[in-house]
Amino acid sequence: MSSTALHIQQRLGERLRPSALEVLDESAAHAGHTGASPSGQGSHIRVRIASPLFTGLSRVQCHRLVYDALQDFIDQGLHALAIELI
After folding, report:
1. pLDDT tens digit at each of 86 positions of the chain
2. Which of 11, 12, 48, 82 could form a disulfide with 22 if both were Cys (CB 3.0 to 4.6 A apart)?
3. Domains of the chain
């Protein structure tokens, strides 16, 4: 797991108290694409998450909670964030 993925996993664990969480760094699959990291890590992240905090919320509201928790990663260059609610 890349350091970015590990930090994202820690952040989501702290903020959203997930019942299930998987963070995948898919950056290597996007090498050479716009926004890809030269290191091949940390620019394209997939998050699969379930949280009791999502109960009663729409999909958009759940995604907003994830984006809000990770805003500083986005501001620092996270190019793509795929969110799957599980």
Report:
1. 889 999 999 999 999 999 999 999 998 875 555 655 555 558 899 999 999 999 999 999 999 999 999 999 999 989 999 999 99
2. 48
3. 3-85 (3.30.300.90)
